[in-house]
């Protein structure tokens, strides 16, 4: 590729760019060679135009931080959509993604508060690489305009809080179902106080419930508040069906033990696969495992089988040691993989019975 720079004409270089046989971006070695050739034919990087960038689009994966910092503003803004496509496809080096923000500050100014809405939109997915201070400096009205574009980006918790705090400070912000939905993935960063401000219609919306379950993890105060509001919407847990419990999914980790104790045992058994994915406390696991066992007591054999343990998965640690003692040795052996995966959560008495059976 380097010989191209010395032996070929500009037309040949451009022709090769346009006719590259692979529909994906070219290999890195070829990219570096083509970029070197481009410097020979088009001159130093600061002289490159937006047209030049468009001709090189297959090879932008080879662009480095020095290119970004020395591009003209026209060329920099032209390369952003190509780099954004690589970023969205997880093909861009994280170091270069951060360099895009550094270059943007060089071209557009270090103070984010002075950027126009157009520049913020040009930044696109690279918005996730802005610091908390940068995000807090974005004009609130501009954030509202940007929300459809950034609501499904993966910000960290501190960034998410900064964006939400800025949004809700706007006079145009009202806590409604429509506004909540506009937050997209950012809704996962709402604080307990903000969750309490949400109207009941938010928690009764099936689409919202599904999103909350998908973005919920742990047993923190926020999860408990979400669970509390869902219980208020769904009513007495003693009336919940297996489908209701499946819909709650991982949010079950935020339920009070007294609520879990009210849920029909048949519903627990139906939804056990979803409940096993929740980050439950030892006490919650014990209640669910006991109800599962009670739901199985109508069978010919009251002993749990290896199939039961495989269904319970992590919930099996909530079973009493006597349950393992009652199981047949063959069933214990067939369950050993599940039990081994959760060995750290098992009590010494449970382990002794399992080992005795094996």
UniProtKB/TrEMBL annotation:
One Pfam family here: Stereocilin
Q: Name one GO biological process term.
A: cell-matrix adhesion
Signal found in the keyword field: yes
Classify the source by domain of life: Eukaryota
GO CC aspect terms: cell surface
The residue ranges of the Stereocilin LRR domain are: 110-331
Q: Any idea which UniProt keywords this protein has?
A: Glycoprotein, Signal
This chain belongs to the protein called: Stereocilin LRR domain-containing protein
């Amino acid at each position: 590729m380097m010989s191209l720079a010395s032996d070929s004409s500009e037309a040949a270089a451009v022709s090769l760019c346009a006719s590259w046989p692979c529909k994906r971006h070219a290999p890195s070695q070829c990219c570096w060679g083509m970029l070197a050739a481009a410097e020979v034919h088009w001159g130093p990087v600061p002289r490159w135009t937006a047209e030049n960038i468009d001709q090189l689009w297959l090879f932008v994966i080879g662009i480095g931080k020095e290119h970004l910092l020395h591009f003209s503003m026209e060329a920099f803004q032209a390369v952003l959509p190509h780099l954004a496509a690589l970023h969205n496809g997880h093909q861009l080096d994280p170091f270069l993604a951060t360099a895009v923000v550094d270059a943007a500050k060089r071209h557009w100014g270090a103070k984010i508060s002075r950027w126009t809405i157009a520049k913020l939109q040009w930044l696109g997915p690279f918005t996730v690489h802005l610091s908390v201070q940068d995000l807090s400096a974005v004009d609130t009205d501009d954030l509202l305009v940007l929300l459809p574009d950034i609501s499904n980006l993966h910000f960290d918790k501190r960034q998410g809080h900064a964006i939400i705090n800025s949004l809700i400070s706007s006079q145009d912000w009202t806590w409604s179902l429509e506004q909540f939905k506009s937050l997209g993935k950012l809704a996962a960063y709402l604080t307990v106080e903000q969750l309490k401000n949400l109207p009941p219609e938010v928690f009764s919306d099936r689409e919202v419930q599904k999103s909350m379950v998908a973005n919920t993890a742990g047993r923190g105060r926020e999860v408990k508040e979400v669970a509390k509001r869902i219980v208020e919407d769904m009513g007495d847990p003693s009336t919940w069906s297996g489908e209701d419990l499946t819909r709650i999914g991982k949010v079950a980790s935020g339920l009070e033990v007294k609520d879990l104790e009210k849920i029909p045992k048949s519903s627990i058994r139906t939804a056990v696969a979803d409940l096993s994915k929740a980050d439950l406390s030892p006490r919650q696991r014990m209640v669910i495992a006991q109800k599962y066992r009670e739901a199985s007591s109508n069978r010919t054999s009251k002993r749990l089988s290896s199939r039961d343990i495989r269904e319970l998965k992590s919930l099996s640690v909530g079973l009493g040691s006597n349950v393992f003692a009652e199981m047949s040795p063959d069933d214990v052996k067939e369950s050993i993989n599940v039990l081994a995966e959760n060995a750290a959560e098992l009590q010494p008495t449970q382990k002794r019975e399992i080992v005795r059976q094996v």
